[in-house]
C-alpha cells in the first residue's frame, strides 16, 4: 500500500495501468488496494482527457476533502499552527508571538485554547484529523517523545511533549526537531520533491540543520545528524550550551552576530547600519559571511548535497549578500563539483517548520499507511 501511495504522491495524478507498470503489482492487487483507499477517503478518482483522440482516462490522486493534518511549530519566540489537506494545500494558518513566555506550562496556556478551537472546527465540519505533527527545538529523545536539552529554551528540558499532547488532544502525534521538520517541508512539499540529497539550514536564535540523503531524512544515532550549528568554527571560541567551544551558532546566530557588534542590539539596527556604511557594522557582516562561507564549505564536503536551503529569521539579512558568497564558496570546493552547487532560500519562509511538522504526518501516511489508519480507530 505504501508503494502505491508514494507513486501517487510523486506523480500527483496517475492511472491504475501506470501504477501496475511502476510497482510491478498485479492489476487485481492495485484494484483492490485503491478501492480500499478510496473508501477510506485517502484517494479519489478524477477523469482526465488524454491523447489526440480525447480518450477519457480515470486517474487517481489524493482526496483533499476528508482528512486534515495539523502542523504545530513551537518556537522560542512564537508558535504557528497550520491545517493542511492531503494534497499539501494550506487551509488555515495561525501564528502568535510568544516573546517573554517561558517554559511549557505558560506556553500551553496560550497554545491549548487555539489548538482546541482548530480541532473542534475541523470535527464540526465533518472532517477527520489524520494526526498532529510538531516541530520544536531539539534534540529530542525519540523513544519517550520528550525533549533532551534544547539550548536557549529554558524550562523545556525533559518535558514529555508527545505524551502530554496525546493525552490532551487525543490525536496521533509525532514530534521532531524543528530543523529537521524544515527539511521535511522541502522533502515532501518543496524543492526536495525533485532532489534526492539536500541540507536545509535554519538560522535564527540558534542554527539548525536537517539532512535528506537519498530521499530520506537522516537522524543519526542520537538524533544529532545535521546539527550544523554546532560544528566548531572558532578553535578557541566561546563556550556553547552544547558543551563544545566555538560552535558556528556562538558567532553566526542572531545573538552570536549581535554579540560581535557593539553599536546596537537588534538585527534591524544592524541592517540599517550596514546600509549606511557604518564601519563596525560592515566589519561584523564581513565576519558573519566568512563564518557562513566556512560553514557551508564544511556542509558541502560532509553531506555532498545537490541543494543547500537557507531559511530562518536571519536569512533576509544574509540574502542581500548571497551573490558575493557563491563565487567565494565555489573557489573552495572540488573543481568538478563546484558548478553543481545550488543555494536557495527555503520554500515556505517563516512557516517552514510548521509546514514540515504537517509533512511528518504525510511521511507517516506514505510509509506506514496501515499502521497510521489503524491508530485512527484505537
Ligand atoms: Zn554548540
Automatic annotation (TrEMBL):
SUPFAM superfamilies named among the record's database cross-references: Actin-like ATPase domain, Winged helix' DNA-binding domain
Record's keyword annotation contains Membrane: no
Keywords noted in UniProt: Carbohydrate metabolism, Xylose metabolism
Alphabetized InterPro entries for the sequence: ATPase_NBD (IPR043129), ROK (IPR000600), ROK_cs (IPR049874), WH-like_DNA-bd_sf (IPR036388), WH_DNA-bd_sf (IPR036390)
Entries under PANTHER family matching the protein: BIFUNCTIONAL UDP-N-ACETYLGLUCOSAMINE 2-EPIMERASE_N-ACETYLMANNOSAMINE KINASE, ROK (REPRESSOR, ORF, KINASE) FAMILY
Annotated function: Transcriptional repressor of xylose-utilizing enzymes.
Family: Belongs to the ROK (NagC/XylR) family.
Name of the protein: ROK family protein
Amino acid at each position: 500500500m505504501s508503494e502505491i501511495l508514494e507513486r501517487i504522491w510523486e506523480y500527483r495524478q496517475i492511472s491504475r495501468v501506470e501504477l501496475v507498470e511502476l510497482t510491478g503489482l498485479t492489476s487485481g492487487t492495485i484494484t483492490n488496494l485503491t478501492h480500499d483507499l478510496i473508501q477510506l477517503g485517502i484517494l479519489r478518482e478524477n477523469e482526465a482527457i488524454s491523447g489526440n483522440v480525447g480518450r477519457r482516462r480515470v486517474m487517481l490522486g489524493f482526496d483533499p476533502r476528508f482528512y486534515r493534518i495539523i502542523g504545530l511549530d513551537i518556537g522560542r519566540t512564537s508558535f504557528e499552527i497550520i491545517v493542511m489537506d492531503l494534497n499539501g494545500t494550506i487551509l488555515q494558518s495561525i501564528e502568535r508571538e510568544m516573546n517573554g513566555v517561558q517554559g511549557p506550562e505558560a506556553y500551553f496556556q496560550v497554545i491549548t485554547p487555539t489548538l482546541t478551537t482548530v480541532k473542534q472546527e475541523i470535527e464540526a465540519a465533518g472532517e477527520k484529523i489524520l494526526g498532529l505533527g510538531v516541530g520544536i527545538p531539539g534534540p529530542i529523545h525519540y523513544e519517550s517523545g520528550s525533549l533532551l536539552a534544547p539550548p536557549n529554551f529554558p524550562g523545556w528540558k525533559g518535558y514529555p511533549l508527545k505524551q502530554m499532547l496525546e493525552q490532551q488532544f487525543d490525536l496521533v502525534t509525532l514530534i521532531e526537531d524543528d530543523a529537521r521538520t524544515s527539511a521535511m517541508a522541502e522533502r515532501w512539499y518543496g524543492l526536495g520533491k525533485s532532489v534526492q540529497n539536500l541540507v536545509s539550514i535554519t538560522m535564527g536564535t540558534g542554527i539548525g540543520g536537517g539532512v535528506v540523503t537519498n530521499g530520506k531524512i537522516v537522524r543519526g544515532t542520537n538524533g544529532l545528524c545535521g546539527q550544523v550549528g554546532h560544528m566548531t568554527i572558532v578553535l578557541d571560541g566561546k563556550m556553547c550550551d552544547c558543551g563544545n567551544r566555538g560552535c558556528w551558532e556562538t558567532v553566526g546566530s542572531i545573538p552570536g552576530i549581535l554579540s560581535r557588534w557593539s553599536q546596537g542590539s537588534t538585527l534591524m539596527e544592524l541592517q540599517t547600519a550596514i546600509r549606511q556604511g557604518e564601519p563596525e557594522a560592515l566589519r561584523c557582516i564581513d565576519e558573519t559571511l566568512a563564518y557562513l562561507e566556512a560553514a557551508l564549505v564544511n556542509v558541502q564536503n560532509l553531506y555532498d548535497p545537490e541543494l543547500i536551503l537557507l531559511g530562518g529569521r536571519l536569512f533576509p539579512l544574509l540574502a542581500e549578500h548571497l551573490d558575493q558568497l557563491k563565487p567565494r564558496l565555489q573557489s573552495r570546493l572540488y573543481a568538478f563539483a563546484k558548478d553543481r552547487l545550488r543555494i536557495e532560500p527555503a520554500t515556505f519562509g517563516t512557516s517552514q517548520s510548521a509546514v514540515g511538522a504537517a509533512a511528518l504526518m504525510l511521511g507517516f501516511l506514505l510509509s506506514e499507511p496501515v499502521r497510521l489508519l489503524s491508530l485512527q480507530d484505537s
